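fwd from M.: "can u put these together and see what the complex looks like"

so here's what she sent:
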Amino acid sequence: MPASKDIGTIVVVEDDPNISDLVDMYLRREGFRVLQAGDGEKGLEIVKREKPRMVILDVGLPGAIDGIEVCRRLRTDGVVPVLMLTARDAEVDRVLGLEMGADDYVTKPFSPRELVARVKAILRRADGPRKESPDVLMAGSVEVDTGRREARVAGEVVALATREFDLLLFFAENSGLALSRRQLLEGVWGADWYGDERTVDAHVRQLRKKLGDALPLATVWGVGYRLG
Ligand code: CA
């Protein structure tokens, strides 16, 4: 089973796990990579790190900063499109959300299909005629060139197998996070891949062997691995 095609990352900031899991499932089905955050601070942190294509943001969030404030901060930091989820048909939420720069909103309860349609519409508008940016991520001192699907150390291409490259890319995209073998399997091989977590270990061994000290990949005992 091939890994699901990755057409970009969407961050879902929502404290109700039923809703965020549902949104997550539908977006993954469309090929998006989805990262969830249960509060505003976590959401901002993930957005900063991951530079997603889009943020889906609940208005009512627990903790110090609610969805409106998250939206405001996202707007001061960059241009990531924001789709807001409002708890009720609350005019004030809508107005505030749009004033704060949200691109669109959906009122709960919403149909997942409608949500997906809104997401796609926003992305079409946001992407416009702009060309894809060349994506080179760093994994330690390894350049991970997603356009050419090449890994380079000090300018030299290191030959990697497809899954090795995908795994390296996944680490680069989630730099600094301890990732479990299960997360790695799902992220790289796909959630419905039938396999054993030792597959991950075998691929990590290959990456370490091929990339050596250029790849600062730590083993996190009892969990999995962490880049950086
Ligand atoms: Ca909420």
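replying to her w this: The radius of gyration is 19 Å.
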